[in-house]
Amino acid sequence: MTVRVPFVLATALTQGDAVPQGPGFLDRALQALVDGIQFGAIIAITAVGLSLIFGTTHLINFAHGELVTIGAVMAFFLNVGAGGPGWHLIPSAIVAIVIGALLGGLIERGLWRPLRNRGTGLINLFIITIGLSLLLRHVVLVFFGTRPQSYREYDIQQALDLGPVGITPRDLIIVVLSVLVLLGVAFMLQRTRIGTAIRALSSNPDLAEASGIDVDRVVLVVWMLGGGLAALGGVFFGLTEIITWDMGFRLLLLMFAGIILGGLGSAYGAMVGSFVIGIVAQMSSLWFPVDLQNAWALLALIVVLLIRPQGILGQRERVG
Fold this sequence. Notes:
By secondary structure, the chain is an all-alpha fold. 70% of the residues lie in helices and 2% in strands. It is built from 12 helices and 2 strands; from the N terminus they run αααααββααααααα. The protein has a two-stranded antiparallel sheet with strand order 1-2. Helix 2 runs parallel beside helix 6, helix 2 crosses helix 7 and helix 7 crosses helix 9. It starts with 6 loop residues before the first helix and ends in a 13-residue tail after the last helix.
């Protein structure tokens, strides 16, 4: 059998020149780490609101992914959608965040609060969140369609070479803004009255109510905060990937993984767990197919919970 050597390679071998080599394993690992931090930041932005909702209401909100999708889709409509105003992406994103916050507050005020006042059990509420998720997802499908879309601005950019890694200005800004928003949430929880009320309600709802905290008001603020953060995460996710009618649902499993890994009910745990999930998902592509990213992230979740059942920042609870 005759083996044909490409002309360029044969010429290089004849002249003694070095054959071009691809990036080494260390360079690829550093690039995967950077991509994982970026992906983890997006998961954290969306998961921290979901964690706060669970901490204050003990509700597992399966419709949270649809708030992510709605944020991305609303920004797309305002940016390039047919019949939209054609705004720049930045004001479009700001309006989408406001819409996400208002939608979160509307869902709490019009659906969850009346159900809680009627004494509806958590299992029933959980099933309702699944139905609400299906409803919102298919409403988005009707108006948005199945065709993937992208924003007009910041679509194709030249990557910045930062030593062995590369990152586009868009992705770098997404990481920086995500970290600043997460720090802002942490500051709010630690240094403001509403943050103290949220932590008190998450720790002991009965004692918080007995001490004079307006529980309904705090829960409403949490839902609005969660809706706004979900919309922001949706815009970031749409910038780094593509905008689809089920993008939030695809991210939902990783949100739950980050929350459980970090510790149920802990906003800080959700942040840490989300970054771990994002990094593991991207680093796994060094050895395994990209299609298995989420599987390895969930495997990391299982391994950590076997060692530390309460999660990374969770606290042990006495049962019985």
